[in-house]
Amino acid sequence: MKGRGMHFTTTLLHGRAVETYPDHAVLPPIAQVTAFGYDSAEQQERVFAHRAPGYAYTRIGNPTVSAFERRIRELEGGSAAVACASGMAAVSLALLNILSAGDEIVAGTGLYGGTFDLFRDLERFGITVRLAPRMDEESVEPLITPRTKAVYGELIGNPRLDIMDIPRLSKLAHDHGIPLIVDATTATPYLVRPLSLGADIVVHSSSKYINGGGNSISGVIVDGGAFPWDFERFEALRPFARYGPLAYQVRLRTDLWENIGACLSPFNAYMNVVGIETLGLRMQRITENADRLAHALAALPGIRVNYPTLPDHPYHGLCQMELGGRGGGILTFRTGSRQRAFDAMKRLKYAVIASNIGDVRTLVLHPASTLYRNRTEEERSLSGVEDDTVRVSVGIEESEDLIADFTQALTS
Ligand SMILES: *Cc1c(COP(=O)(O)O)cnc(C)c1O
User: Fold this and answer.
1) Please, which contacts does 248-255 make with residues 24 or more away whose CB atoms are closer than 8 Å?
2) Whole-model pTM over 0.85
């Protein structure tokens, strides 16, 4: 059967969600339209009531966007995927779908800066975010209260690079009757499929590795479809109780996502379908490059490197166990001073100074003065961002060239 027993890179080209389209096209046509026309009002009524398949209006559904969603659903092994206008839209909607005023969530601290900014917005709607200094049972459990609706964290924190122990954290969350929601942007399904380890909902900023070419902003939410929602506790899902474990995805798709309107553009969905075909090749190359670069930089005097495959990294063991010893595409290093960091960034020949990750090109960023400029020093520190920290999103260049370039930039 198609899709069974295939390795990841083969699934990307021959999985069940790989389709042929009209005229035997190997990629989906770009349905760059706002609305879809019908022969009869009766037929349109059935589509609107979700009683017949079909598309009505691109905010509510679009065939090119659906093609992208089917690819992601298969790669993550989920029961539904909902594409969004951006990674932040995906993070927001994944949480808001189960939150009401007065609720709480427990979240990690090694998080993407934009997610921290979102938490501040959520506070204005009466939602309390309790931050765990580390994403382990000892730190998370004491923060869970009867109002807690989810445990949320990044699989590989961007940029702290702490790794979530998904089996243990999902067990802890489930023991308390709440789902584990994982932002797996930096890991991608190439490194691990969080749903298979016990996570309940996965979000991605597909602007990053999934797209891969740095050409489209987008996000996606994947529901495992197995969490046993208690509709007494999860009031937001109560009107959808008849769908049982699928209540989350039905509410998201037919209610919140539709109403908020953060839909993905068909053109960007198409760019993602193109990009995803090379996700395996890119991730293989990127993780190899990152590992080599991390080891080379760690040997330079005065440079402290943070990368999970380095032997002294606090998550080295978990990286071996959960990610097969592959540390992903991001590393950070500390130079000793902000000036030295800025000088090194200027001297790099190949790395582009840009606030993105997951591009085919190597990118560098000074997080403290950019993504974390609104954070206090303490919050920054908790996120793994110091004044002399440089974040590198490693690309697919030849590793020898990258090592030579970073070495000259840091030693001249
Ligand atoms: C970039 C990023 C986001 C936000 O995604 P956008 O597509 O920029 O909105 C969320 N989480 C992580 C881990 C990210 O790296």
Assistant:
1) 248/97, 248/98, 248/179, 248/201, 248/223, 249/79, 249/80, 249/82, 249/223, 249/225, 251/97, 252/82, 252/93, 252/97, 252/221, 252/223, 253/80, 253/82, 254/50
2) yes
